[in-house]
Amino acid sequence: MRVFLFVLAVSCIFICAARAADPRLVFAHYMLYANDNINVLKQEIRLAQSKGIDAFALNSNVWRQNLADNMYQAAKEVGPNFKIFFSADIHKDANGNLTPDQLVTMLTRYETHPNQMKYRGKPLFTSWLGSDDSWWKDYNYSSALSGWNAVFQKAGGKNKFFYVPFFPTDGSLGGVQGTLDKFKDIIDGLFAWDTSAWPYFSPDFQNPSVSKDQNYLNACKAAGKVYMASPSPWFFKNIAGSCCSDACKAKDLSNCNCQVKGNYQGPGLWIKKWEQLIQLSPPLLEIVTWNDWVETSYVAPPLSTAAADVSGYTHRAFLELGQFYFNWYKSGSQPAITQDSIYLFYYTQSKNINVPADGCKVVYSDQLSDKVYVTAKLTGPAMVELRSGSATQTFSAPKGISTWSMDFQAGQQLATLKRGGKVLSTLTGSKLISNSNATHYNFNVYSTCTTC
Ligand SMILES: *[C@@H]1O[C@H](CO)[C@@H](O)[C@H](O)[C@H]1NC(C)=O
Ligand SMILES: *[C@@H]1O[C@H](CO)[C@@H](O)[C@H](O)[C@H]1NC(C)=O
User: Fold this and answer.
1) What pLDDT sits at residue 17?
2) CA spacing 20 to 30 A to 145: which of 132, 213, 236, 380?
3) Whose Cα sits closest to atom 11 in ligand 2?
4) Whose CA is nearest to atom 6 of ligand 2?
């Protein structure tokens, strides 16, 4: 008995210490579909790394081996510290779908690659969906559980991998517990996606809350699993011709390709979520996304050929501002501010605009606020002047990070930072706000900053 207790105590010294030492890392969801050359991929990796991002989670619903090889190779050429892992996207669309054998390849092909992301010593693997039995029945598995079991077995055994999927839940404690219980033998944690990234669906549309993240964290901890949260800067999607679809008319948000998620404009969702997640400190988090140009949740600059879709709507200010929060989350202490900077955010047409050519309005665009936002990150008190069209407001800004907004007017958007009557910097948005001649509804956010 005594020996047994001693063994327990000694194991705890090692195991508990290992747990306590789990590093806090920042991942970013990377849509793997553009055929960019290795030099572009290296630029993306260098930029992500310079901002404090540790790894890309490559998301694809078909097996693009050539693109995956290129990404691992690019990471290798940049150096040993930036890591790559997969987010297998388990849904079928016009491109096709991943087969179970291709999932095995995803697990094993880069297992020993120097840039493979490992967590607690094991290759990290995630998936986007994959808990739906019907998908697996096409491959003659009786359930998702038996399908995943077979995939891991073929890849060398479940214990070799650390698997943290997004299996949808309603975010309630019971809902998360049910999913953990059902899949406990094959998962090491859960990733939340919608319930974490865009916490807006009624009745909390007006007040984004962190309660679902809290439920995930509590349920995962109790089950001995890890929780991966999902901070996101924004979500707007308007795929041509989709606004009047039946799904959008019925507000079936999983299938409606013309919607905004949330009314929280400017940098609000991003800053608020990071503040909440730093408090909560989930073991893992994945920015959603690095480069989803279609759902406009990207933080990447338009280095990729696929970025042409967003025509100058840069989200660079989200990434620049994010760096402060990434470092805070990772280090556990608030970073010092060593440089004054300001950040400007707005969408470029009124939520009340009518665009007959685009048919129906964007679902939930009525919840938006026609405001321009300025965020100041300051080494000391200063004055921030915000000009929208012909209107101007002045704010007295303290040391630290603060955000103001004013109703926007059409025309130019501009912010000026002043201290002691002296202009320190001026920031002019390169996009005008205009309600004339629009050909489609567009509530993507434009952003810029003095360090962008
Ligand atoms: C599933 O089983 C059926 C009936 O045995 C067979 O015809 C089919 O080829 C199988 N499908 C796959 C993907 O193995
Ligand atoms: C809108 O189009 C009309 C007609 O082509 C043009 O005269 C006008 O300048 C345009 N307005 C804006 C704001 O671009």
Assistant:
1) 45
2) 213
3) 436
4) 437
137 lines ligand 1 (CB under 6 A): no
Domain limits for position 374: 341-449
Q: What is the pLDDT of residues 221-252, one digit of tens each?
A: 999 999 999 999 999 999 999 999 999 999 99
Helix axis angle for 38-51 and 316-331, nearest 10°, is: 50
150 C-alpha to center of ligand 1: Å?
16
In 25-110, the DSSP E strands lie at: 25-31, 55-60, 83-89
Q: What's the 438 CA to ligand 2 centre distance in angstroms? A: 10
To the nearest 10°, the Cα dihedral for 175, 178, 222, 59?
A: -80
320 and 430 share a domain? no
In a domain, 431, yes or no: yes
Residue 6 beta carbon below 6 angstroms from any ligand 1 atom: no
Q: Which residues of the chain have pLDDT under 50?
A: 1-10, 12-18, 203
Q: Judge contact between 116 and 153, C-beta under 8 A.
A: no
* 247 falls within a domain: no
Global pTM reads 0.93
In single-letter form, the type of residue at position 165 comes to P
Atom of ligand 1 nearest to the CA of 139: 13
- Ligand 2 pocket, Cβ-based, cut-off 6 angstroms: 434, 436-437
Q: In sequence order, what DSSP letters do the residues of 364-401 get, joined into one string?
A: TGGG---EEEEEEEESS-EEEEEEETTEEEEEEEPSEE
pLDDT tens string 259-273: 998 778 899 889 989
Helix axes 144-154, 100-108, angle to 10 degrees: 40
Task: Please tell me if the CB atom of residue 39 comes closer than 6 angstroms to any atom of ligand 1.
Answer: no
Nearest ligand 1 atom to the CA of 140 is 1
C-alpha 262/C-alpha 20 separation (Å) is: 36
191 with 278, same domain?
Answer: yes
